[in-house]
From TrEMBL:
Keyword Signal tagged: yes
Cross-referenced InterPro entries: C2_dom (IPR000008), C2_domain_sf (IPR035892), Perforin-1_pore-forming (IPR052784)
Name of the protein described by the UniProt record: Protein C2-DOMAIN ABA-RELATED 1-like
UniProt domain C2: residue ranges: 1-117
Keywords, ordered alphabetically: Signal
Swiss-Prot/TrEMBL GO biological process terms: defense response to virus; immunological synapse formation; T cell mediated cytotoxicity
Alphabetical list of Gene3D superfamilies matching this protein: C2 domain
Any GO CC annotation of this UniProt entry: membrane
Length: 128
């Protein structure tokens, strides 16, 4: 019985060590495209795997927004996919400007992602 308990404890410890905290920060964009309504009103939706971590505030009338929000997720795993969807907020329908996807790796990383409809999303993350 004692040996089975040790095995269970080892498995539980291994599972808890495999999970890490994801911290996404320093979200900003450059050269977001304008539309018929004028300069972009950008925001970003953040996902880790299938889990929505939330979205940033809308930055109105700027092609080069910077978002103060940080996103934390305590159940991230190495190689989980992080997805950042960039939108232009409009009156009726929000236009998706692009999607950035990346497999998470341990450590702190900075990335630039070129958006399908123009512009670049810059961001940093730490997994650890």
């Amino acid at each position: 019985m004692v040996s089975k308990l040790h095995v269970v404890l080892l498995v539980l410890c291994a599972l808890s060590l495999a999970q890490a905290q994801l911290r996404l920060f320093d979200l900003r964009a450059s050269k977001l495209p304008s539309d018929l309504l004028g300069t972009a009103d950008g925001y970003v939706k953040v996902f880790c795997g299938e889990t929505s971590l939330g979205k940033t505030a809308v930055r109105k009338d700027t092609a080069n927004p910077w978002w103060e929000e940080e996103f934390n997720y305590f159940h991230a795993l190495e190689n989980d996919e992080m997805k950042l969807e960039v939108y232009d907020n409009d009156l009726l329908f929000d236009d998706q400007l692009g999607v950035c996807q990346r497999q998470l790796q341990p450590g702190t990383h900075q990335h630039d992602c070129f958006l399908k409809k123009g512009g670049t999303l810059h961001y940093s993350y730490t997994l650890g």
